[in-house]
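User: I'm writing a tutorial on reading structure tokens. Could you give me a worked example: one chain, its sequence, then its tokens, then a sentence or two explaining what the tokens reveal?
Assistant: Sure. Here is the example chain.
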Amino acid sequence: MCGLLAVAVLVVGTGVGCGGDLDADESDRPATNSTEALADPSVDGRFEVAADGRRLYLTCWGEGSPTVVLDSGHPDGTGIADFGETEFLRRLAAETRVCAYDRAGWGRSDPAPNEPRRADDVVDDLDALLEAAEVDGPFVLAGSSFGGMIAAHFADRHPEDVAGVVLLDVPAPSATLSAEEIPEIAWDHPMHPEHLDIGPEFENRFANRPPSFPAPLVVVTATDGDSSVQDQKAWLRSSEDARQIELTGGHEIYLDDPAGAAAEVIKLLDR
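And here are its predicted structure tokens:
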């Protein structure tokens, strides 16, 4: 279960049923100088995501469509700091626009409401953030570790906006995991400022009812990651168009094999 405590990734790109052309030529995405793009963000600021005025911070680099959105994991929701200087980001920014954000209570984003928050709440935050910043779909979603749960649930909640999902070393959810076993996942733990109720709302919920979506799914398992190929096969149930691949590296596979991890995202963009 240490995967819950590691960095996660959420990636968003082209979309099925949302005006996206999956047969489009790669020329639809203009070539981008990733070095210049990272030095000069196209979007950089805080955007309102709730009626009470709560804001989250979002940064985007590069240009083109579909858009790629990166999301870090539990308990570190500072996605901008985690991905801003990585080779993984550079490779994606060379293809299209790439965004990262700080989840509620992290980095430059406003604090989360001081109450147990559900899986729907974090997905609603991301959906509202992209809309407020005028970052349009269609989308391809991907996530590593805990971020994979967010990615899969976003695809379940917004299937019309999602054309693909990539999970980067995401252990299968547990039907029995609780805060008694891992105190750090309790919604009111000091290390958990976004107050997500991870046991019942993510692990237990998705073990009993896996997210389901029509978009194609790629499950990327790391050779030295947080769980085995067999364990992560559980995610293949989420889509009828699913495949699994193993890459050499550890749990943060986007750092250990940035070329391989980025290639799996780009393959879905090119579809």
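What the tokens reveal: Confidence is low (pLDDT under 50) at residues 1-27. Strands lie at 43-48, 55-61, 68-70, 98-102, 139-144, 162-168, 217-224, 242-250.
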